[in-house]
Design goal:
Layout: H1 4-9, H2 11-24, H3 30-45, H4 50-66, H5 75-87, H6 92-110, H7 119-122, H8 142-151, H9 155-162
Helix pairs in contact: 2-4, 3-4, 4-6, 8-9
């Protein structure tokens, strides 16, 4: 029986589509296609869920088509790749996810049993730098909120603002 997510998102079909797209992409060499497929098998043995594996195939297809020299594992190539991806008009979370997948894939290419990342990708900072923390001076003070409550025209608005 399929779970609710499988019924709504149809992940098995999505996986078929991204694999078909990977196979048809002329910019991705046969060697890199095989590496992506082997990495996909590795992720499955690590019990990574299907949605994440689909996203990996999508990003690794982009990675392999953007920069063919990635398979040699040269740091300069990885720097160029991260720079090209950073210049795209994407959300910060998407860029961070791409960095995580790049690091994990290159780590797997070198030696998945090694505890440290290889030096070619160790320098990549994969954490999300925009953590949306507010500074104390950006927070509303009690006098600010009371002024907003007094200025509100409707009791509904006053009730909502008083909860701040």
């Amino acid at each position: 029986m399929k779970s609710g997510f499988d019924l709504v998102h149809n992940y098995p079909h999505r996986m078929e589509l991204v694999l078909r797209k990977l196979r048809k992409n002329k910019k991705v060499s046969l060697h890199n296609r095989l590496n992506v497929l082997k990495f996909l098998d590795y992720l499955e043995t690590q019990q990574v869920d299907l949605a994440w594996r689909i996203r990996c195939v999508q990003n690794l297809t982009k990675l392999a088509s953007i920069l063919e020299g990635v398979r040699e594992g040269k740091q300069r190539g990885h720097q160029k790749l991260v720079l090209l991806h950073a210049r795209l008009d994407l959300a910060d979370d998407t860029k961070g996810l791409f960095k995580v997948m790049t690091k994990r894939f290159c780590h797997w290419l070198k030696d998945p049993n090694d505890t440290d990342y290889p030096p070619e990708v160790k320098w990549i900072k994969a954490g999300n730098s925009n953590n949306h923390n507010l500074l104390p001076e950006e927070l509303r003070t009690e006098t600010d909120v009371s002024g907003l409550v007094k200025a509100a025209a409707y009791s509904r608005d006053r009730a909502f603002l008083s909860m701040l």
